[in-house]
Amino acid sequence: MRVGFIGDIVGKPGRTMLEQYLRKLRQEFELDFVIANGENASHGFGLASQHAKELFSYGADILTGGNHSWDKKEIIPLLEVMPILRPLNYPVGVPGRGVSVLHVKDEKIAIVNIMGHYGMPMVENPFLAAQKVVDTLRTEGVETIIIDFHAEVTSEKRAMHMLLKGKVSAILGTHTHVGTDDLQIVEGTCYVTDVGLSGARDGVIGMDKDAPLKRFLTGLPASLEIPKKCKKILQMIVMEIEEGKCIEAFKLRVFDDQERLITKAVHE
């Protein structure tokens, strides 16, 4: 099974990159399934129903979320009927679900969305939640388990890797929007601290630079905006998975001038 995972899609520039390239990439790399984090896809904050439908039409099979999952209220009823996840470790009774088990090429694949603690909204312990769901899935015979760990700090993501390596197919970090250079495969588990955003690459974490600079220079509030003109990037991890183990992986960066860079995972 070959799976693609796209990091945080930020606003129209990110959606545009998926529209232009994802179908071609699915065909070129023979992707059987594509996961994408969509919590910033609508103007950088949340996911509107129209944009969710767009992303599915471009080739995404399931969308994951994070701390911005609730920014667009119209998406809440769709969490029950569309392949859209929110973090698993929200309290019982919160709409939606944090895990989905699907059949791909006659195999079960589980996608799990978990959110970290530091700097995030109140959620239950992500490590205990991850242990519990992984144990349950493995008991149910699910071998291929891919986790989107939406967290602020590198230490949480790295610790999750240490907790679950050898037990899941992949732990892929999202949220910080800045891709990290530590793609590796350990005991059959693919890991990267952050996949990196898909969207504007010449601003500040996908946003126009003016508001962040005003905040940092003056301490005064300023509204973050998606840039109207920008250089764009699409970032994706591609994984080859056999019997629940990741055997090969690479990071793909596609730029809007058609340049691309491929970085292979290190086998540890």
Automatic annotation (TrEMBL):
Signal peptide: none annotated. GO terms for molecular function: 2',3'-cyclic-nucleotide 3'-phosphodiesterase activity. InterPro entries: Metallo-depent_PP-like (IPR029052), YmdB-like (IPR005235). This is TIGR00282 family metallophosphoesterase. It comes from Sulfurospirillum diekertiae. The lineage of its organism: Bacteria, Pseudomonadati, Campylobacterota, Epsilonproteobacteria, Campylobacterales.
